[in-house]
Amino acid sequence: MSESEARPLNMDPVRSGGYDDDEPPSSPRRHPLWANVPQSQWDDWRWQSQNSIRSVRQLRHLLSFTDAEIEALGRLEGEYKLAIPPYYFSLINPDDPEDPIRIQSVPSPLEAENPSGYELEDPLEEDLDSPVRGLTHRYPDRALLVTTHVCSMYCRFCTRKRATMVRGGWDAVSRDDQRMVDYVAAHPEIRDVIISGGDPLTLPIAKLRFFVENLSRIPHVDVIRIGTRVPVTLPQRLYDPELIDLLSASGKIWIQTHFNHPREVTPEAKRVCNALLRAGMPVNNHSVLLRGVNDDLATMRSLLRALLRIKVRPYYIFHCDPVIGAGHLRTSVWKGLEIMEGLRGHMSGLGIPTYVVDSPHGGGKIPMMPNYMVSMSDDAVVLRNFEGQLVRYQAQDKPPTIKPTQTRGVSALLQGSKSVLVPEGTERMERRKLHAAEFEKGDEGGGCCGSHGGGNHGSGQGESSHEEDSTSGQNHAGIIPLGIRNFPPAKPNSGSA
Ligand code: SF4
Fold first, then answer.
1. Ligand 1 geometric centre to CA of 328 (Å)
2. Are residues 178 and 317 in the same domain?
3. Same domain for 361 and 387?
4. Is 155 near ligand 1, meaning CB less than 6 Å away?
5. Among 155, 162, 324, which residue has the most ligand 1 atoms within 8 Å of its CB, making it the best to mutate?
6. Do residues 73 and 131 share a domain?
7. Could you read off the pLDDT of 288-330 as tens digits, one per residue?
8. pTM of this prediction?
């Protein structure tokens, strides 16, 4: 098929609306290919698994490709595994070759390229920190167990692509099950065990039971984390009460899942995260920063808000590891920092993950963040907030050691002759002006609890700054002190807690 012959598929999903029209979780989707599958089958993880797209031959009937792409993908098929359950495939917009769900699941000819030569098979050197095959002991109190090389969906960006290769991948994980458990039992410093893969929720239930029950019995193991994308790619697996009961009975299980795009937060995903939470298992999420998937602020905010809506805690944003076959999905650290800059202070702290780079040579996770500490002295630090406000912060109660001199700007903050520098025109300051004007007019609406998160009304710092410019009614930094306000008495039966 030539490029000009690439078929417009025009297959709308079985739901109303487009692909990014609603706040997730919106409504279930089904590709028309499976429109007539009875709901009971659609909800059966075995059916989903058996009917997964596993070949380029199948893909070419469902999505548009050029001849050159088909040829390249045919070659790649011999390298990396491919599996996309009908459920996850139905989230793809077939008319968009750059669709973020497609990018994560459908192979790209770019997987064959490694122009910088920087990408490696095992960029984190996990195999070098493996005292037992399949077990990585890198951090003092944690161990990682790779229990299978099978996944319900093979993510194109996977750090362990070497484990999911068609040829030459890991072939002997299962022989070491008992040795992995014995190693954890023999090392009382290990408190937190991550059962990963591949995806451990693809394991036969007996084998998963072996790991969960044996590890749970080890007294020094406090936490067992299940690293799984099943809630994202095959939630139907978690409709099985036997699986939920097995995990819940341990009392030590935490779920570590992996949503990367808001469209993945579906009603089905919500259902299984809710089942896990109700069964007593905290659900944390790590996302991988991926070019074309979530490397823009609006998408990342939408994803994090959607996760909060289903009570999944955003835990990490990982920079995509330099793994062979995933180079085209990597973006700059600056892009990650730009996104973090747009999160902190702009949305609830509950929804803000830590952005980390997993460093080469097994150095482990290193947090990346915009610089919030601008300067420091023996007496104080100068911090900046999300608006660009610069504030002096004195961490200890001790007399000043710096002798004041004639100075200004950040230096004045360090010396203590100023407490804050406020940028002009911020929404917050405009709100304060409005409040102050209302107060002057005698309008007593609104309130302030005076706790963290409120303003700095009437603080000594604000008042001292205010003295510097008493003619304008504002303090030197543009902050309007509101003083102590008289609130009206609460109305009876107002319904407030
Ligand atoms: S589910 Fe996890 S292990 Fe499997 S391919 Fe995706 S990222 Fe890799």
1. 17
2. yes
3. no
4. yes
5. 155
6. yes
7. 999 999 999 999 999 999 999 999 999 999 999 998 889 999 9
8. 0.84
